[in-house]
Design brief:
The complex is a heterodimer of chains A (about 575) and B (about 350).
Chain A lengths: L14 H28 L3 H8 L2 H34 L5 H7 L2 H4 L2 H12 L6 H6 L8 H26 L2 H9 L4 H30 L2 H7 L10 H10 L3 H33 L3 H6 L8 H29 L3 H9 L2 H34 L5 H8 L1 H4 L2 H12 L6 H11 L9 H12 L2 H13 L2 H8 L4 H30 L2 H6 L9 H11 L2 H36 L1
Helix pairs in contact in A: 1-13, 1-17, 1-20, 2-13, 3-8, 3-10, 3-15, 4-28, 6-8, 6-11, 6-15, 6-27, 8-10, 8-11, 9-10, 10-13, 12-13, 12-20, 15-28, 16-28, 17-22, 17-23, 17-25, 17-27, 20-22, 22-25, 23-25, 24-25, 25-28, 27-28
Chain B lengths: L2 E8 L12 E8 L4 E5 L6 H9 L6 E6 L2 E2 L5 H4 L1 E4 L11 H11 L4 H14 L15 H13 L5 E4 L8 H18 L2 E6 L2 H7 L2 E6 L2 E6 L1 H6 L4 H6 L4 E3 L16 E4 L4 E4 L14 E10 L3 E8 L2 E8 L10 E6 L1 E5 L4 E5 L12
Parallel strand pairs in B: 3-8, 3-9, 6-7, 7-8
Antiparallel strand pairs in B: 1-2, 1-4, 4-5, 9-10, 11-12, 12-18, 13-17, 14-15, 14-17, 15-16, 18-19
Helix pairs in contact in B: 3-4, 3-5, 4-5
Classes of the chains: A mainly alpha (about 575), B alpha+beta (about 350).
The structure holds adenosine-5'-triphosphate (ATP) and magnesium ion (MG).
Chain lengths: ~575, ~350
C-alpha cells in the first residue's frame, strides 16, 4: 500500500472526508441561506439600506433590543457567577436538582416560556399581582423584556463559568490567603481575573441570545410601537408578514453583522482563555476543594435558590396551574383536537430529521475539528456556532430569501418541478419547517463533543493508527467510548430545542393544521385571546413542559455518567 | 546499518522564517540490536526526530532506511515500528489485556494466537494478574510496562520510546530504567529512546546521540562522549563542568583569549592545602585560590574555588580534612578541553609532563 503523510496533517485517517462533509453541510444549511440574505440586501443602494435602518420603529426596536439584552446579560453575569460558585464550591441538599434546572431555558420551548412569563408577570399573575400593588409593572414594559431575556440567558453564563471554576486550582487561592489577603481581596485579585474570560464569554453569548430572542419575549413585551416595547426580531417578523422583504433583509443584515462581531469576541475570549490556562488537566483532578460553609456561603446559597425558584421553578408550576384552570376534562379535550395532533406529527417529524442530520454532522465535524490541525480551524469553529447567535427569525428569513419566490433557488426549484412533474415546495411547507429546525439546532451535538475530544487529546487515536487500525475501527473502538455519554446528552438537548423551535419555524409556516408545529399551535391558541383558548394554550404547553422536565432529568443522568466515565 | 537516517530535515509549516528547523540535516546509522539514547535539551527536536522515524510525521527533506529499504512512503504500521508515547496513550476504555491485544486484533490474527502472544507478554511484564484492570487503575510504572508490552505485541523490528520515564517519580524511575534495559536486551529489539536526562542516557544506552537546536552534536558510546566531547555543548551536557571564555595566568597553560571556549570538568581540578605533604612537590605547578562555597553532595564535597578571577569546581573525598568557605587553597589544573568552530582539543598541564603524577 502506498502511503503519503501530508506534511500538515496527522496519520489519523479521515481528514479530507470529514472536513469535506463538515464544510459541505455547513454551507448547505447555514452559510448559503445566510449569504442569500446578504445578496438580496446588496440589491439596494446604501442609501436605501440606511433609510430602512433609520426608520423610527426600527431604530426604537434596535435601542430596545440592545439595551434590554445588555442589561439582562449584566444581571445574568451577577447571578450566573453566584450560581456557578454555589454549584462548584458549596454542598447543600438539592444541589443536583438546582444544577439540573439550569438548563431549563434551553429545554423549555421559547413560546411556552413566553406565554408563561407574560401571564405570571401580568397584573393578575402570581408575581405581577403583588408587584403591581407596589406600583411596579412588568408585563408589557421594558422590565418584562428584561425578565424574559434574563430567563433565556442564564444558562450561558453558568455553563461557561462553572467548568473554569471547577478547574481552578485552589492552591492559587490558598497562596493568597497565606499571604494575608482577605476573602474579598482574594476574590477580586486572584479569582476574578481567572474567571474574567469565561464571564465575558458568557456575557457575550447571553447578550447575543437576548438580541435575537423572539419567542419568549414577544408575549411579555406587548409589542407596542408607542411604548417602544418592540424588539428587533418582532420587527423583522412584522416586515415579513407585510412582505416587505427589503426592510426585513436590511435589518437582518445589520443584526447578522452584530452577531458576527459578538461571535468573534466570544471566540477570541475562548482562545485567550485556552492560552492562559493551558490544558492542565492534572490540576483539574486535584481541585476537590473542601467546601467552606461560612455565613457568606449560606447567603449565596439562599440567593441562588431564590433566583432559581422565581426564575425557573415558578414558571413550571404556573404552566400546570393555568393548564388545569378549567378542570381535567377540559384539559384532556384541549389535547385531542385535530390541530394538536397534526402539530404533534409535524413536530415529531421535524425533530427526528433534525436530530439525525445534526448528530451525523456533530460526529463528523467534531472529528475534523479535534483530530487535525489545519489553517482556518478557528474560523470554521466559529461558523458552526453561528446559529447560536443568530435570531431564529433571521434563520427563517434566510430560507425564504433562498427558496422563496424572490430567492435565487426559486427558478431551480421551478425547473425541477417542471421536469419531474412534481410540486415540491420548501418555504411555507414541511421541508421549510424541517430546514429551519435543522438550522437552529445545527451546532448542538458538535458543541458537546468538541470539548470532550479536545480534552482527551488524540494520542490514543495516533497509537491505534500506528498499529494499522482503519479509520472506522479507530472510531468504533477508541473514540466512541469517550464520547458516548456526551453524544447522548448533546442529542437530548438538540431534540429538546428542535421540539420547541418557534421563531424560525414561525417565519416559514403559515397553515394551521398542516405545517404548524406544537409551539405554533400554542401561539395560535394564545393569540386567539379568549379565556378558553388561553387555557388550551397552556394545556398544550404542558406537554412540552413535561418533555422538557424529562429531558432535564435524562440530561442530568447522562452528564453524571459522562463525568463518572472520565475518572 | 539497520536504521539509517540520511540528511533528515523537518521544518513545520507554521515556523516563522527567522526560526531554525525543528530538525536539521541529521545523518545517523544504527546497528541491529542497539539501544540508543536521543539526548538533548527541551525543544532540541528529539520528539520530532522520533516521530519521523515512526512515520507519524513526514520529513521535509531526507530519507529513512530500515533494513536497507527506504520507508519514507510507508505507513507506521508497515514500517514495523513499535512506539511508546510520552504519556503512554493507553486506550482508556480498554483493559490491560485489550490494550496489548489491540495491534494483533487489527492484524486479524487468530484468537488463539492473540491469546497466546498477549499471555506471553503479560508474563514478561509480570502483570498477568492485572489483565482485566483499566489503565486508570494502574500505577505509573505499571502503565509504562503495559505501554511497552502493547508496543512489542506485533513484534516490531524497531522500538521507539518518547521519554519513557517522564511521567514516573524519581524513585521508581531508577528501578524501571534497569528493568526496561533488561527487557529490551532480552527481547533483542533495536530501540531508540528519548530523554533529556544525561544520567538516564548513560545508565541505559549502548550509544548516545546528542541533539541541539535540531542538529546532531555528537553520537557515540557514553564513555566516548564523556571522554572525548566533540563540542563544548556535548562537554557541558555530559557531566558537571565549568565553561570559561578565557584562560589567563594558570600555571602550565598558555593564555587563551581568542574567544575559544574552555571546559573544565571537576576531575581535572585538584585542590589541596599547602601543608599537605602528599602534594608538597606539586606546589610550584599550582595557583592560589580562595574557597567560595562548600556543598555537600552525599558521597563527596563539592568545592567552588576562585582562581585568577574564575570560579572552578572540584570534588573532594569525605575522607579528607574538612574545608571551609574563605580558606586559601592551592589549585592544580591537570588539563582542560578547548573548543572552537573546527572541533575539540585537550590541553594538558605542560609543566606536569616531567613530574610523576597519577591522573585521576
Ligand atoms: N507540530 C508542531 N508544529 C510546529 N512546531 C513544532 C511542532 N512540534 C514541535 N515543534 C517545534 O519543533 C522544535 C522541536 O520540538 P520537539 O518536540 O521535537 O522537541 P523535544 O526535543 O522533544 O523537546 P522536549 O524535551 O521538551 O520534549 C520546537 O522548537 C518545537 O516548538
Ligand atoms: Mg519531546
Amino acid at each position: 500500500m502506498r502511503y503519503m503523510i501530508n506534511k500538515k496533517q496527522s496519520i489519523i485517517p479521515g481528514f479530507s472526508l470529514t472536513l469535506g462533509i463538515t464544510i459541505t453541510m455547513l454551507s448547505i444549511f447555514i452559510l448559503i441561506p445566510l449569504a442569500s440574505v446578504l445578496v438580496f440586501s446588496l440589491h439596494q443602494s446604501p442609501g436605501q439600506f440606511f433609510e430602512c435602518i433609520s426608520d423610527k420603529s426600527v431604530l426604537n426596536a434596535l435601542i430596545t433590543s440592545v439595551s434590554c439584552a445588555f442589561g439582562a446579560a449584566l444581571v445574568n453575569c451577577v447571578f450566573g457567577l453566584i450560581l456557578a460558585w454555589v454549584l462548584v464550591r458549596c454542598t447543600f441538599p438539592g444541589k443536583r436538582i438546582l444544577d439540573g434546572l439550569i438548563e431549563l431555558p434551553f429545554a423549555l420551548p421559547t413560546a411556552v416560556a413566553g406565554i408563561t412569563l407574560s401571564k405570571m408577570y401580568a397584573t393578575t399573575g402570581e408575581i405581577g399581582g403583588p408587584l403591581s400593588k407596589l406600583g411596579i409593572m412588568v408585563s408589557y414594559t421594558h422590565l418584562g423584556i428584561l425578565v424574559a431575556m434574563v430567563f433565556i440567558g442564564i444558562p450561558f453564563v453558568v455553563r461557561t463559568v462553572q467548568p473554569v471554576l471547577e478547574k481552578f486550582n485552589p492552591s492559587y487561592e490558598e497562596a493568597a490567603y497565606v499571604l494575608g489577603a482577605g476573602q474579598f481581596l482574594t476574590f477580586r485579585r486572584v479569582i476574578l481575573p481567572e474567571l474574567r474570560p469565561a464571564l465575558l464569554t458568557g456575557f457575550g453569548l447571553a447578550f447575543a441570545r437576548g438580541l435575537g430572542e423572539y419567542g419568549s419575549v414577544i408575549y411579555i413585551s406587548g409589542n407596542s410601537a408607542k411604548n417602544k416595547t418592540q424588539v428587533v426580531s418582532y420587527v423583522i417578523m412584522q416586515k415579513l408578514n407585510y412582505l416587505d422583504y427589503t426592510s426585513a433583509t436590511s435589518i437582518a443584515l445589520l443584526m447578522l453583522i452584530i452577531s458576527f462581531l459578538l461571535l468573534l469576541f466570544v471566540n477570541a475570549m475562548a482562545v485567550y482563555q485556552a492560552k492562559r490556562t493551558g490544558t492542565d488537566y492534572e490540576v483539574a483532578q486535584i481541585s476537590n476543594i473542601s467546601a467552606r460553609q461560612g455565613a457568606r456561603e449560606r447567603g449565596m446559597i439562599v440567593l441562588a435558590v431564590l433566583f432559581v425558584f422565581f426564575m425557573l421553578i415558578l414558571p413550571l408550576f404556573s404552566v400546570l396551574r393555568n393548564a388545569l384552570a378549567k378542570g381535567f376534562d377540559f384539559y384532556m379535550a384541549c389535547l385531542q383536537t385535530d390541530y394538536v395532533s397534526s402539530a404533534l406529527g409535524v413536530t415529531v417529524m421535524a425533530t427526528v430529521l433534525a436530530l439525525a442530520v445534526n448528530t451525523f454532522f456533530g460526529l463528523v465535524a467534531a472529528w475534523a475539528l479535534t483530530r487535525f490541525s489545519f489553517r482556518g480551524k478557528q474560523v470554521l469553529g466559529a461558523l458552526i456556532d453561528i446559529p447560536f447567535s443568530v435570531s431564529p427569525v433571521i434563520a427563517g428569513l434566510a430560507y425564504i430569501m433562498t427558496f422563496g419566490r424572490l430567492g435565487w433557488a426559486w427558478p431551480i426549484l421551478e425547473k425541477f418541478n417542471d421536469v419531474f412533474g412534481t410540486d415540491v415546495q420548501i418555504v411555507f411547507a414541511l421541508p421549510g419547517v424541517v430546514l429551519a429546525t435543522i438550522f437552529v439546532t445545527f451546532p448542538f451535538v458538535s458543541r458537546e463533543l468538541i470539548p470532550v475530544l479536545n480534552s482527551v487529546g488524540n494520542g490514543e487515536e495516533e497509537a491505534a493508527a500506528m498499529m494499522g487500525a482503519s479509520g472506522f475501527t479507530i472510531f468504533r473502538r477508541i473514540t466512541f467510548p469517550h464520547i458516548k455519554w456526551p453524544l447522548v446528552y448533546g442529542m437530548i438537548l438538540c431534540g429538546a430545542r428542535a421540539l420547541g423551535e418557534f421563531g424560525a419555524v414561525s417565519a416559514l409556516s403559515k397553515t394551521r393544521g398542516e405545517t404548524f408545529t406544537v409551539p405554533l399551535e400554542i401561539d395560535a391558541l394564545y393569540m386567539d385571546g379568549g379565556a378558553d383558548s388561553i387555557t388550551a394554550a397552556f394545556a398544550v404547553s404542558s406537554i412540552l413542559v413535561i418533555m422538557a422536565v424529562v429531558v432535564l432529568i435524562l440530561r442530568n443522568i447522562f452528564e453524571y455518567r459522562a463525568k463518572a466515565g472520565q475518572n | 546499518m539497520y536504521l539509517e537516517l540520511k540528511n533528515i530535515t523537518k521544518r513545520f509549516a507554521d515556523t516563522r522564517p527567522e526560526e531554525p528547523d525543528a530538525v536539521s540535516h541529521v545523518d545517523l546509522g544504527i546497528e541491529k540490536g542497539e539501544l540508543i539514547a536521543l539526548l538533548g535539551p527541551s525543544g532540541s527536536g528529539k520528539t520530532t526526530l522520533l516521530r519521523m522515524i515512526a512515520g507519524l510525521d513526514a520529513p521535509t527533506e531526507g530519507e529513512i532506511y530500515i533494513d536497507g529499504e527506504c520507508v519514507n512512503d510507508l505507513s507506521p504500521a508497515d514500517r514495523r515500528v513499535g512506539f511508546v508515547f510520552q504519556n503512554y496513550a493507553l486506550f482508556r476504555y480498554m483493559t490491560v489485556y485489550e490494550n496489548v491485544a489491540f495491534g494483533l486484533d487489527v492484524q486479524k490474527r487468530s484468537k488463539d494466537e492473540v491469546r497466546k502472544r498477549v499471555g506471553e507478554l503479560l508474563d514478561l511484564i509480570e502483570l498477568s494478574h492485572l489483565r482485566d484492570r483499566y489503565p486508570n487503575q494502574l500505577s505509573g510504572g505499571q502503565r509504562q510496562r503495559v505501554a511497552f508490552a502493547r508496543a512489542l505485541a506485533t513484534q516490531p523490528a524497531l522500538l521507539l520510546l518518547d521519554e519513557p520515564f517522564a511521567a514516573i517519580d524519581a524513585k521508581v524511575r531508577k528501578e524501571l530504567r534497569r528493568w526496561l534495559r533488561e527487557m529490551i536486551h532480552e527481547v533483542g529489539v533495536t530501540s531508540i529512546f528519548v530523554t533529556h536526562d544525561q544520567e538516564e542516557a548513560v545508565d541505559m544506552a549502548d550509544r548516545i546521540v546528542i541533539l541541539k537546536d535540531g542538529k546532531l552534536e555528537q553520537a557515540g558510546s557514553p564513555y566516548d562522549v564523556y571522554k572525548n566531547p566533540k563540542t563544548a555543548f556535548s562537554a557541558t551536557f555530559m557531566g558537571d563542568s565549568v565553561v570559561l571564555d578565557k584562560l589567563c595566568g594558570f600555571t602550565g597553560f598558555e593564555d587563551i583569549t581568542d574567544g575559544r571556549k574552555i571546559v573544565i570538568r571537576p576531575e581535572y581540578v585538584e585542590a589541596f592545602r599547602d601543608d599537605n605533604p602528599k602534594f608538597h612537590h606539586l606546589i610550584p605547578y599550582s595557583n592560589e585560590g580562595i574557597v567560595r562555597d562548600v556543598v555537600f553532595r552525599g558521597d563527596s564535597v563539592e568545592l567552588i574555588i576562585e582562581v585568577n578571577g574564575e570560579r572552578l569546581m572540584c570534588r573532594r573525598s569525605m575522607e579528607r580534612r574538612p574545608v571551609s568557605t574563605g580558606e586559601k587553597m592551592r589549585v592544580l589544573l591537570y588539563r582542560v578541553n578547548v573548543f572552537d568552530e573546527e572541533g575539540a582539543q585537550v590541553l594538558a598541564n605542560e609543566t606536569l609532563q616531567d613530574v610523576d603524577v597519577e591522573f585521576m
